[in-house]
Each structure stands twice: as structure tokens, then as C-alpha cells.
Amino acid sequence: MSTALAMVLAVMMDAWLGEPRRWHPLVLFGRLARFIESHGHADRRVAGVLAWGLAVLPLVAVTGLLEVWWRRAAPWLWFALEVVVLYLVIGLRSLADHALPVARALTEGDLAGARTAVGRMVSRDTFALDDTRVAAAATESVLENGNDAVFGALFWFALLGAPGAVLYRLANTLDAMWGYRTERYECYGWAAARIDDVLNFLPARLTALSYVLLGDAPRAWRCWRVQATRWDSPNAGPVMASGAGALGVQLGGAAPYDGVWESRPELGEGARPDAHAIVRALQLVRRSVVLWLVVAVTLGLAQWSASHA
């Protein structure tokens, strides 16, 4: 039951406080990762494996040791730390803080402002996007980051506690930094990309299932089943296909990166997205979070009742 309660409190803290403005631990971790990369980068997979282990494993081990020690010596202190750790690794409010300015700018007809705002969410060339493609980029980011920034961390926290949440968030951060198929990271970032794929396999499919249950279920299920495997990422495909189907919008398609328009599969069905689609995507993620918390509390109560029967 304490795990479910910690999840509820962490989500409430995120809604109330948002991300810390200064000295966010993930910012400090990013600096550590850049330091490790600058002193150990090599065009070999083994170098990336060692760098990943050096960046992630000591911090996960420290969290695990604190759990072993404090759970016995000071359980309430450990519970409070668990809540804070989970709060720091989820980013539900951050999704809204980034996506809503895009929706507002589009609603007001400010395409330049919308391009600037969506540029904080995606890596594509936003100056080349029209209003429909800006809305699509923001909607895609909300749906995908619902898994990456929220549900993945909740899943691993529910499974392994604070050490699991820390492991997931640090691995996800390194994938965002190193997991690219570029000349510099093709080999060095291989481990970061593959480990993130493994850690996201189950959370992504549970996220996709949540989108199915809370949106247009027949369409979302059909899009997931038919379209997901067309996407390069084995985890983003189910999440984005089911999310697009749940919303009844069409995502994917060609997008510009570094001055080149790259072909991408179409995802979803229905109209092209607009500002309202961005807001609806946020609402879908929020409803899914509520569903996850209800399930967690229900299972926690059932376990508590069984242990006290």
C-alpha cells in the first residue's frame, strides 16, 4: 500500500510544484554524462557500455543501499525519500508546460510563436513546419513522452521502488543524449539505446493499452495492431499508433531534420491535428495517469487486506 500511496503523492507534488527550476538532479546527471563522454568517447560499443555503467550503476546502487538501510532504521524517512525521488523523475506537468504554449499560439494564429514553442519539444526543423505539422509534432511528443516522462517511471517504481525509478530515468536520459544513429553515436550510443528499449518494452505497451481503454478503443486497437510495427522505434510505435487512433487524428508522415525531409509512416486515422488535438492528447495522458493510480491503489488495498485477513 505504501508504494501506491507514494505514487499518488508524487503525482500530486508534480502537479503542484512542477519541475525544480534550479539544481534539478537530472541536469546534474546530464553534466556527469557529458563529462564521462568527453573523457571516454570511442567509436566502439564497449566504450558506450562502460560509460553507461559508470554513469548509471553507482547512483542506482546508492539508492538501493539507502533503501536497505533506511527502510529498517527509519521507514517513514525512506517513504518520504521515495516520494521525492519519484516526484523528481516524472514530468507530467512538464508535458503541459511545454505543449500548452504551442496550442495557445496556434489558436491565436501565431505560427512563429508556435514554431518556437514546439522547438522546445522536438528535434525536427520547426521553421519548416506549417500549422498542421506544428500541431502534429506537439501531439506526437505528448503521446510519446507520456510513456517516457511518466508511465515508464511509474512502472519501474511500482516494480522495484525508488532504485527502479532512478534506473529508468537515468537510462532514458542517456538514450536521449547518446541513443542516436549518427556517426558519433552509432557505436558509442548503442548500449544506451538498447537498454532503454528493454526498460520501455512493458511500460510502452501498458501505456498504449491505457490509450486504447480511454480513447476511441476500436480505432486505437486497430491502429496499434496494424501500424505500430511500421515505426522505427519498437516502443514509440505502439504508443503513438494507439494514441493517434484513440484521438482520431493522423500523425506521422514526412518531417524535416537537418534540412532534409525524411519519410515516416502514417499513424492513426482521421483528420490532421490542430491545437485542440494537442490539448486532447494531454487530457488522454492525464486520464491514463488517473487510471494507473486507481489500479495501484486497488492492488495495494487488496494486498493489505490479504495480509491482515
From TrEMBL:
The keyword Mitochondrion does not apply. One of its GO terms (cellular component) is plasma membrane. It is found in: Cell membrane. Pfam families: CobD_Cbib. The keyword Cell membrane applies. GO terms for molecular function: ABC-type vitamin B12 transporter activity; threonine-phosphate decarboxylase activity. This is Cobalamin biosynthesis protein CobD. It comes from Dyella telluris. The lineage of its organism: Bacteria, Pseudomonadati, Pseudomonadota, Gammaproteobacteria, Lysobacterales.
